[in-house]
From TrEMBL:
The keyword Cytoplasm does not apply. It catalyses: holo-[cytochrome c] = apo-[cytochrome c] + heme b. This is Holocytochrome c-type synthase. Belongs to the cytochrome c-type heme lyase family. Residues 1-21 are annotated as: Disordered. It is an enzyme of class 4 (lyase). The keyword Membrane applies.
Length: 201
């Protein structure tokens, strides 16, 4: 739920100057605005103002720039609380507006953490070359054999005597393992930063 824009968080500079719904004309104009597709990400272009049918209240319209690049000069920009709420209402998902700011904050942090994991993979290919060793480990998970792949890299940037970076992930040999790899960044963020489990530090 991010939009590709130039590096600015001023709604007016982004061409998103706030408008009162009453100035939009008839009600069908609101429906038309909600159904506009942003060609940059092929997702609905959610307006950054309070829609009349969602109530008369207004939420925070400030947007934050992510660290995730679109190209050399542009970065993805996270939705404002108002846009996030409008999007949920568009999908007929009921949520207390008092929690929107917290939900948006978690949404943004999870995306940042996911990007860090992607960078780790890319760093591995760019800087480390091929692994000098590889092992396959098998874990008995309540009667189900689960395969893990362990690749060992020589990484001189690590400040210890070993200089070894270990990349561990489930093998892509089952739908369960694929799903684990997709959702792992979200679990790691939750247990590392919210629950603060020692295992994830």
């Amino acid at each position: 739920m991010m939009q590709n824009l130039s590096r600015t968080n001023n709604p007016e500079e982004c061409g998103e100057k706030a408008k009162c719904p009453t100035t939009m004309g008839r009600h069908n104009r609101l429906e038309e605005v909600e159904n506009v597709i942003n060609e940059r990400n092929m997702m609905p272009d959610i307006p950054n103002y309070s829609l009349k049918k969602n109530g008369d209240f207004s939420l925070n319209r400030k947007r934050h720039i992510s660290s995730i690049p679109k190209n050399n000069s542009e970065y993805w920009i996270y939705p404002s609380s108002q846009q996030f709420y409008n999007s949920l209402m568009r999908k007929n998902k009921d949520i207390d507006k008092n929690y929107i700011d917290a939900v948006v904050s978690i949404h943004n942090e999870v995306n940042e953490e996911s990007w860090k994991h992607i960078l780790k993979y890319e760093y591995m290919h760019k800087k480390l070359g091929r692994p000098f060793d590889r092992h396959d480990w098998y874990v008995n998970r309540c009667g189900t054999e689960v395969k893990y792949i362990l690749d060992y890299y020589n990484d001189e940037s690590i400040n210890d005597d070993k200089n070894i970076y270990i990349d561990v992930r489930p093998a892509m040999d089952s739908l369960s393992n694929v799903w684990d790899r997709v959702r792992y960044p979200f679990y790691e963020f939750y247990f590392k930063y919210i629950k603060k489990y020692e295992l994830f530090r």
